[in-house]
Amino acid sequence: MLTISPDTQCQTVISTFEVTPGTCHDLLDALNDAYDSFIRHQPGFIAGAIHVNDAQIRIATYSQWRRREDFQAMLRTEEMRKRNRHINDLCKSFEPVMYEVVAGY
What are the residues whose beta carbons fall under 8 Å from the beta carbon of 16, sequence distance 6 or more? Predict the structure, then answer.
């Protein structure tokens, strides 16, 4: 379960994807499969969520990890490297960025 609070001791990663309406659902399928069959089973993973805007041109994922190093280790696996190459082919761009929660309301 996601907990968004400055008191939560975790690493937050927000990734944004720019897509076309024609590739939006293909990318959603790829992201859902990645989270369901691989990412959520990685050491340090706490929780995640996938969001899509109503125009179907932007997708955002939000994930929490126990430590920054856990997220980085997941990215370096051969499985995730392969998945990221496929994800890259489905979108115009994507960018994962690490954040710290400053406030929650």
Answer: 58, 59, 60, 94, 95, 97
